[in-house]
Amino acid sequence: MSKTATNLIHSIPVDPLTGAISVPIYQTSTFVQEAPGIHKGFDYTRTNNPTRKALEDVVAQLENGKVGVAFSSGLAAIDAVIKLLEIGDEILAVDDIYGGAFRLFTQIYAKFGIKVNYVDTTQTENVFNAITPTTKLIWIETPTNPTLKISDIEAIAKIAKANNCLLCVDNTFASPALQQPLGLGADIVIHSATKYLGGHSDLIAGLVITKDQTIGEKIKFIQNASGAVLSPFDSWLVIRGIETLPVRIQKHCENAQAVAAYLTTHPAVDKVYYPGLKSHVNHDIAVKQSKGFGGIVSFTLKNDTEEAATAFVRATQYFKLAESLGGVKSLLCHPAQMTHKSIPADKRKAAGIADSLIRLSVGLEDVDDLINDLENALQSYTRLINKKQTTIS
Of 98, 196, 273, 381, which residue is the catalytic one? Predict the structure, then answer.
């Protein structure tokens, strides 16, 4: 990863005015103008800000795109992309989609006449067969949240191009350190920079990167018109996070691989979802299009109930029960009751999100400690479930 690390680190500019090695935080709402409309490229921070511009330029370079645009959250970034569409347009989306995106699509944009068709995009023929004359945007996450499905970006990009559709890839779980969708044919990449790019669970941010200058300018217009901009300080935090992204991602991947391998051996565990396992149904595609398999591991329990999952997630010590992912500290969540609660139960289960599915965000702790934590929690969970079953019988 040395070349990637070098590119990441040195994509962050030295301040041309002072030589500061750290990008300055321009904590200002407005800028003095020499005359009306005559200024140094900045007039109002909602429209543009030097710290945010530095971040936007960096992420555009990291994803090999033309334009980067920074938003106040990942959902604000998603919202801006959907605003490219018009009434009557259709989105073809991955079925195992982030709950917040599902809520935005179904409860906000459906009433404006934008239809969403959900399919399993891991089977490329499903995408081909679901395209209609009104399909204008194909929306995939790869890996998906939370079952870590892998879709073939290059193959789907060819379908999108042949049908005059835009392809947007949510690259949050991989990050540009592992995967660069624009180079595989995608038109738009989005990130919840809250996750791996920030990396320290201390900010909320979203990013959109476009391959095409014109589309990027449209997103930039939407950013200014809608106003969901990232603050200068949070922009600086993301830049700081990017500086350590390569080394963090490498450790996340190493730890996650070890955790996934351990979980496959435990008798209380039913299924383990991790693209780095050769048993993963799309392992070969993950190898083809990414440099690593990421820090997220999901698994289900043989006792497939919300009660069982709740018992487990309350028993860990190092894995903290919380929303979000991608930070240096390990987290876990129960999607059915947390991140994906807004998705109806039947749709969750159809997409593979079982009642007992647990998502781990594997952090940077010593991996032996993390595995011991999971072992102790599984033992505690097993004792509790056995006790309840004995009491009932």
Answer: 98
Tokens found for residue 235: 């922009």
Residues 191 and 235 in one domain: yes
Q: What is the CATH number of the domain that holds 368?
A: 3.90.1150.10
CA 41-29-31 angle, to 5 degrees, is: 35
- Looking at residue 385, its pLDDT comes to 73
CB count, 10 Å around CB of 268? 17
| pLDDT above 90: percentage of residues in the chain | 85
> Rounded to whole angstroms, how far apart are CA atoms 154 and 128?
13
Domain C-terminal end among 210, 243, 276:
243
Q: Active site includes 52?
A: no
95: annotated active-site residue: no
Q: Is the pLDDT at 388 greater than 80, yes or no?
A: no
Domain boundary among the residues 217, 243, 269 is at: 243
Q: Which residues contact 259 (CB under 8 A, 6 or more apart)?
A: 297, 360, 362, 367, 370, 371, 374
Q: Taking residues 23-34, what's their average pLDDT?
A: 96
Please state the pTM of the whole predicted model: 0.94
**CA–CA distance from 332 to each of 190, 317, 370 (Å)?**
23, 11, 12
What is the rounded average pLDDT of the residues 90-97?
Answer: 95
Q: Per residue in 239-253, pLDDT tens?
A: 999 999 999 999 999
Burial of 157: CB neighbours in 10 Å, binned 0-12, 13-18, 19+: buried
CATH number at residue 9: 3.40.640.10
Total tally of structural domains belonging to the chain: 2
Q: Catalytic: which of 43, 46, 347, 349?
A: 46
> Side chain identity at 317, as an amino acid letter?
Q
Based on the domain organization, do 261 and 228 belong to the same domain? no
Structure tokens given for 57:
């330029």
pLDDT band for 340, please (50, 70, 90 cuts).
confident
Looking at the structure, tell me whether residues 71 and 22 fall in a common domain: yes
| Active-site annotation holder among 95, 170, 355, 373 | 170
d(CA 114, CA 82): 9
Q: Among residues 52, 83, 136, 195, which one is catalytic? A: 195
287 near 318, Cβ under 8 Å?
A: no
pLDDT average, residue stretch 215-227? 98
- Structural domain of residue 342, as residue ranges? 246-392
Active site annotation includes 98: yes
195 a catalytic residue: yes
217 with 259, same domain: the answer is: no
